[in-house]
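Quick start: read one record
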Amino acid sequence: MNFRTQKYNSPIPRLDLIPLLNVMMVVLAFFILIALSLGTPSKTVEVQLPKGEAGGEIVGEVNENSQIVYLNARGQFLFQEQTFAETEIQEPIALYLEENSQNIAFLVPNPDVPYERVMGVLTQMQDIYGDRIALGLFAH
């Protein structure tokens, strides 16, 4: 038996790494996606939108006797062509509403005033005057 003289005619086996790397990248991408979706809590805020028709309920119509209280971006109020601070505005509004028992005053904020500020001022005024003061917006 001549084992040493026997020659193998087959070539050296070759290992192709490209398909192996493709499979490894797919597995790695899968685990990264799973880790990102399970690892971090959601940073969204759940907001409950009001139901109903657009525009909501119309409380009152502006007529020639209605007064508009403007709230500017600096936190000042413009009422009957005079500027008032937040602490001074209550008296002129009360006087107007006493003299005009059938009318409504409208609070119209500047678009640059933050929503929380507008709702805070409107809530304070509605606590004092009830439904005689409403939020007014200009249609653009």
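The chain has a mean pLDDT of 80.
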